[in-house]
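Lay summary. Proteins are chains of building blocks that fold into shapes, and those shapes determine what they do. In this project we predict the shape from the chain. Here is one chain we studied, written as its sequence of building blocks.
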Amino acid sequence: MYENKKILVLGMARSGYEVCKLLAKHNNDITITDMKEQDEKQVEELKSLGVKYIVTDEPEKLLDETFEVLVKNPGIRRDHKCVLKARALGINVVNEVEVAYSFLNKDVKIIAITGSNGKTTTTTMIYNILKKAGLKVHLGGNIGYPVSSLVEKTKKGDILCLEISDHQLVDMYEFKSDISILTNLYEVHLDFHENYGVYKNMKKKIFNGHTSKNIAFLNKGNTDVLNLTEDIKSSKVYFSSKVDADCMIKNDAIWYKGEEIISLYDVMLKGMHNYENIMCTIMAVKEFGVSNDVIYDVLNNFGGVEHRIEYVDTYNDVDFYNDAKSTNVDSTIIALDSFKTPTILLLGGLDRGHSFKPLEEHLDNVKLIVAYGETKDRIKSWADSINKECFVVDTLKEATKRAIKNAEPKDTVLLSPACASWDQYKNFEERGEEFKKEVFKNKN
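And here is the predicted shape, written in a compact code that computers can read:
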């Protein structure tokens, strides 16, 4: 499908780089473009493979009817001029995962995980347990390992454990999983989609191509999930921390299909949202015959993923947590509800025009907000309106120093920005690393 074609790759980053390397092996005429200069070594590698590399903020001027495929970076909007022009010209618009899927061994088992929150933690736990069980499993997708980089590594009988975002699902058509997980649905990323209905329908594409031979693990306690998946063809299995389900909490333990799998006291990750992520994990790995002992070994030691309510350090009796991955208010709500100690909250980042009002019912333990980035003034106005003390600074470095200065013993300093990172950083990982660096620097 993607051989002997003229292809434009719109946006480099990790996915553009990896898909170019994959496509270059199949006699394609490839041009990749980005608005900014990219890593020099990666650029030179692509050039050595015959890929043309162009830096421009007007990629639509490169596109004409001679191109057959546009591979779009997931972060690029559907109404980008280049994307609109491609569609007008009848050029196929896809993303890196869709391309990689066409080259995968068809005997590979695919677990696809999506949802508004919890998908990274769930994907990581499933991968860790399957690996611990001795199965040949590969981790990829939105979690940071493009599927294109896994194509040559995956063999017949292997398992692909993939986090799939709504941004990726926009340009998915042929991609199909054996098992799909929808952790939950909330109103997020509405700056990227026209409305919540569009966002939900993008999430529904995780069940594309499913028949009764394929499995859907669904959140029975989330009304939007139930309504959205009412007509999917998958075999449905349910989990919930709120109501009776196939996988549920009973007697302070997680049960699946009438069997006690693990006590909540033996799980390192705490919080009801994490228990639901663990339910998804248990349901998925049980499809591959994993024993309760292996599940216990991993869940008893798994402390979470980097940049998601990640414990950083404690000094002067103050705990520091990095939740840089929280790019929306719903994720920040989950983080806030995880702490009962007096909390200094670092908020800010790219201004998408979203409201911070949903946070208000979750600020009982927040003694101070430190706002930074593009949204700092809006956060300040909002905080003043609810009589919550708020300091305003320009950068995360300054915010971290201000938080440390105002922290007292037994406090928690929490970076949970409720905003995207792109006003000052390439990605949320870079934001989280800077926070941790500042914490350690000020300690020393």
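What the prediction tells us: The chain has a mean pLDDT of 95.
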